[in-house]
Design a protein that fits this description.
single chain
Length: 293
């Protein structure tokens, strides 16, 4: 049948219950339902929209994996977690409204949701897992929760239409490759409490024109801004002690670099390929300059 109504009184849709039911286009869920188990609707390629009743408190991982015609979903207002890989590969999902009760978005939750254009993450969210929005290639606008402390590895990697992002002041760490390949990113407003920028965090963000690091930053990982070929202005944190390997590799439009007084180590290839840099001010305290720096 193309449409199906789950009988009133059902509490749980079990693991893999409708997995691969490609004929299914519409499903009506009862107000008695409390739980969707793993893979409940995975690979339902005919499903275009679904409403999860507010009675549901738990949607488990992979529940809608590769539902590649799912355009619209209304979530229960009483779930607190988007589990791992819940919507991975839902590449026609155009929008998602996250309820205000959500506290956790787990790894790969929206990985490959390449039709999403706008995401607002409510302030109730305190944790977002790695790769949560990996290769959401049409994502243009994101509003982040002001309760998160970490932007996890690869969280927006490959979101090549993301134009601007404000990172709330709750964030202290940007992990590995968080914004790698965000080639349309023109403006980043960094947290005033940021301390750590992971390796390749902004790799190949070719649209960035300036990098202004708050003085709270003490660590920049290898290749963090490598390939940011549009950058012409950099302000480094006064509290940096080390500029890591290939941090500004091939930032070919960078014209002037002032290295803070506290820096003692400049890593291999840190400024390699910065062909337009006419002025590089190196403080007296630098004891190590790596090869091809």
């Amino acid at each position: 049948a193309q449409s199906y109504t789950v009988t009133d009184g059902v509490n749980v849709i079990g693991a893999e219950a409708f997995r691969g039911a490609n004929h299914l286009k519409e499903i009506t869920l009862p107000s008695t339902l409390t739980q969707l188990e793993p893979y409940a609707f995975a690979w339902c390629h005919g499903l275009t929209d679904i409403t999860i009743p507010d009675s549901v408190t738990s949607i488990e991982g992979y529940a809608f994996e590769d539902c590649n015609n799912l355009i619209k979903i209304k979530l229960s207002n009483n779930i607190t977690t988007i589990e791992e890989r819940t919507f991975i590969g839902c590449n026609r999902l155009t929008s998602i409204t996250l309820p205000d009760n959500i506290t956790t978005i787990k790894a790969h939750a929206f990985d490959g949701c390449s039709s999403l254009t706008d995401v607002t993450i409510p302030n109730s969210v305190t944790s977002i897992g790695n790769n949560a929005f990996y290769e959401c290639s049409r994502l243009m606008r994101v509003t982040l929760s002001n309760s998160i402390m970490t932007l996890a590895a690869n969280i927006f990697n490959g979101c090549n239409n993301l134009a601007a992002i404000t990172i709330p002041d709750s964030v202290t760490t940007i992990e590995e490759a968080a914004f790698a390949g965000c080639s349309s990113l023109k403006a980043v407003d960094l947290s005033e409490k940021l301390t750590d920028i992971g390796r390749e965090a902004f790799l190949n963000c070719t649209g960035l024109s300036e990098i202004l690091l708050p003085d709270t930053v003490t660590m920049i990982g290898a290749a963090a801004f490598s390939g940011c070929s549009g950058v012409n202005k950099v302000k480094l944190s006064a509290n940096l002690t080390e500029i890591g390997k290939e941090v500004f590799l091939n930032c070919e439009n960078l014209t002037e670099i002032v290295i803070p007084a506290g820096v003692t180590v400049i890593g291999d290839g840190a400024f390699n390929g910065c062909h337009k840099a006419a002025y590089i001010t190196i403080p007296a305290g630098v004891t190590t300059i790596g090869k091809e720096a």
